[in-house]
Each structure stands twice: as structure tokens, then as C-alpha cells.
Amino acid sequence: MTDTTNRAVVPAAIEALRLPAHLDGRSGSNRGGDDRAQIAADNDIDAIKAWLARFIDTRTTFDSYRKEAERLLLWATVELGKPLSSLVHEDWLRYRKFLQDPQPAERWISPAGRKFPRAHPQWRPFAGPLSPSSQRQAAIILNALFSWLVQAGYLAGNPLALSRERKGRAAPRITRYLDDEVWAEVKATIEALPRETPREREQYLRLRWLFTLLYLCGLRVSEVIGTTMGAFFARRDKLGVQRWWLEVVGKGNKPRIVPATSELMTELARYRRELGMTPFPLPHETAPLVLPLGGKERQMTRGGVHEIVKQVFEKTAQRFRAKGDDYATEAARVMMASAHWLRHTAGSHMVNGDVDLRHVRDTLGHVSIGTTNTYLHSPDDSRHTETESKHRIDW
Q: How far is CA 81 from each of CA 20, 21, 72, 181, 204, rounded to the nearest angstrom?
């Protein structure tokens, strides 16, 4: 049972959280000895911040790791009335069950699944129950946190260590992608958007550009918002043919170049003309790849990009429902989709279109196709040619 005296602790973002002395971890039962300490932190929040500092240069990783550490810290202090540094193995088992359905919802789940700024009074740690894959990801991240705190001498032991499971067999195929019928309906949804007013036209062209970018380039949302127009560049091959490329920085700060096909550049030119820009980017342009409505030159947030993609999927689901009960499966599937599904869709469609697997690997920025072909490398120009001919959006 939760001790009602702990209700003074209200779930709040970790940077604004203030814990009473008996919950801040200074006297946690799992604390390491002072003679072993390798970090200056003397409480749980500062210890977590010391761990997070290692990832400050990679924003997506930092945000993901902070989210999981923050959730566990809040649950421990609010629901159990224990500091993070007093958790034991049985507490971890209870938390795993909690992740399946965070209750009470009014305390833990954002109203109507909305995303609020971290300082907003209606901010909550969860948008809803975690999927099995998200639960596994939480376990991986938290195990890394506790292992590091043990190594740093802050904790005596890792309460997750007894729950380490053998790595499951990899899924035989990617399932989070849009098949041809659903993908065609998504494009039809965008094409059906009104475009009578300047704002409607800008919104329509922005969506066409964004979906073209996500699909033809297979970009992650973090890569979309973190890349500028100046990252486009043109170069000529040995035959004098000019080809456009887009340089992005992916996971692990690894740069890669992605073929910018003629379809992609056509959509970009349409979008840029609507914003009063030159059809093609100039070197060193600082404008983001996708801009807020109104053309203000500022970077959109990941949440903002996810939201406008989700709105298209919701409208697509409505179109399927309007066709009748026979399309309930398609409606339900597209409602599950997220912006990252477009990356998986791009990869699946490229493979189904017989694009060389090496080209798919290089375009999506995967580390390798598999252990047996780690050293394969595809020439860039042939990758551009094959992508141009076999991977099309066909608006």
C-alpha cells in the first residue's frame, strides 16, 4: 500500500522535483560506501543527472534516458514511498507490472494523451500504457542506469540484475510498416486536403514535402528536424550527370549522404517556392528542412512533427471507416502508425522493389546487413541511380 504521507510528492519533471529528506536517497538502503564513490552526487536526483550528463550531446538519447529514469524515480517516491537507492528486486517486478497500466491515470497519464511542456502543471510522465517493446526498452535503459551507479560506487548493487533475460530471437520481419493499400490511402488523404487559401496551400505542400522526405530518404524524425536546407549539395558523376544529395547526421553522430532523387527535389522546389525561396537550396542555408506554418525560420520540435504526421494517419483511418466495416483492419492499423513507420515503409518498399540491400543499408544508415557482410560497401553513384529508378513515391 502506498503511504499517504508520500502524496506530498507530486509527479513532476526531474529538473523541478523536490524530494523530502527521507526520499532523496541520502540514506538509501542500497547506497554504496563513501570510500567507493566515483561521483560527487549524494542524492538520487544528482546521481541520475551525473549519469545523464554522458548523453548530453545526443539529444534523442538524452531525452529517452531521462524519461525512463524520471519515471522510475517518481514511481518509487510517490507509489512506494522509497528513494530510488532503496529499491530491491521485488520492487522492480512491481514496476514492470505498473508499466503495463500506469494507475491511477489522473496522476500518471497525460489528459487525452496530449503532450504538455515539462513545466506545465498538466504534464505527466506517461501518455498511456507501454507496449511490450517499450517495456523492454525501459528495462534496458534502467539496467544501464543501475549498472553505472554501481560502477560509480553510488549504489551497492543492481536490483535489476536478477531479471536479466536472454536476448530473444530477433523478429523474422519488420511489421511496423504500411502496406501498399494503406500507403496509397495515406497519399490520397494528403491529396484531398483543401488548398484554397494561402495557409491551406502551405499546409498541403508542407505535408507533401514532409511525407516525401520521410519516405524517399527513410529519415528519422530527429534527422528531419536536425538538418538544414544547406545540407543539400549537388555533384556530377563521371559522365557529367548532376546528382543531388542530402547529408544527415544519424544515430551515434554518424554522418551519411542520402540520394536526393528528382522526385524529392521537385517536391522541395514546390515547397520552397511557396515560402518565397529559391527552388533549390544554396550552400550554407540555415533554414530547417521543414518549417512551422507561416515560414518562420525556426526548428520544429520532434513532438510537432510527430503530431502533424499522426493527424494525417487519423484522417486516413476516417477514410477507411467511411468505406465500411470491411476496412476496419486497415483503419485500426493506420491508427497505430507513427512517423517512424514511414522509415520502415521506405526500407520495406525498397527491398520489395529489388533495390540492392547494400544500397538500402547505406541510405537508411544501418550499421550492417548482417555479420556475414559487414564489409560490403556500395558505390554512391550506383546507389543514387538504383534509388532513382526503383524507389518512387508517385504522387
A: 11, 12, 12, 51, 51
CATH topology classification for 180-390 = hpI Integrase; Chain A (1.10.443)
Tell the burial category of 193 from Cβ atoms under 10 Å away from its Cβ (0-12, 13-18, 19+).
Answer: middle
Cβ-contact 327, 318 below 8 angstroms: no
Q: Which residues of 84-106 are buried (b: 16+ CB within 10 A; e: fewer)?
A: bbbbeeebbeebeebbeebeeee
Question: What does the block give as the cell for 97?
Answer: 507490472
pTM over 0.85: no
Contacts 24+ apart (CB under 8 A), 378-384: 380/245, 380/257, 381/237, 381/238, 381/243, 382/356, 383/259, 383/356, 383/358, 383/359, 384/243, 384/245, 384/259, 384/261
Nearest to 316 by CA among 341, 294, 351: 341
Cβ contacts of 306 within 8 Å, gap of 6 or more: 221, 338, 339
Which secondary structure element, helix H or strand E, spans residue 345, and what is its range?
Answer: helix 339-352
**Per-residue exposure over 50-73, b if at least 16 CB sit within 10 Å of its own CB, e if not:** bbbeeeeeeebbeeebbbbbbbbb
Give first-to-last CA distance, the chain, whole Å.
57
- In degrees and rounded to multiples of 5, residue 350 shows phi and psi of -65, -45
Ordered by start, the domain boundaries in the chain are: 4-163, 180-390
User: What CA–CA distance (Å, rounded) separates 75 from 58?
Assistant: 26
**What is the tens place of the pLDDT at every residue in 114-163?**
788 888 888 899 988 998 888 988 998 999 999 999 999 999 999 998 87
Query: pLDDT by residue (tens digit) across 277-322?
Result: 999 999 889 999 999 998 788 899 988 999 999 999 999 999 999 9
| 302-322 helix and 180-191 helix, angle to the nearest 10 degrees | 100
